[in-house]
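A favour between colleagues. Tell me how you read the following sequence-structure pair.

===
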Amino acid sequence: MNLSQHFSLDELVFSQSALRKGIDNTPSAESIANLKRLCELVLEPARALLAVPLHVDSGYRSPILNNLVGGAPTSAHMDGRAADVVPIGMDLPNAFALIRASEIPFDQAIIECNAWIHLSIGFEGQPTRRMAMTASGGPGHWVYNYV
């Protein structure tokens, strides 16, 4: 199922950790609607802005999977409002800077561990916060800094 021109439901729910542990990572209809909104409002515009494909490292996470990987208890991944992406063929800090400076209506853009960019949308009908941060550390010990 395509969520947008360049993103599919399969890639937004795929998880090596879920496969290894036998965890069902099937999203609800509401989470699928959020994933579609995430793709249309944030991921597709970011892909167009950067002019490179975006590899999705982590999209939707069931609460069990989110806990397993050390995600925040209130993670936007759990309701389909976030994805961690890597721009293919572009320097990560440069991609992050371009996204931050753009008009893309992200709720959060976080460059995490200098390895991927977390992009999220807010709840439908809520104002966009456009929070830009860096994160270092690891599961359970993340340190966030606003930029």
Q: What stands out?
A: The radius of gyration is 14 Å. The mean pLDDT is 95. The chain has five helices and six strands.
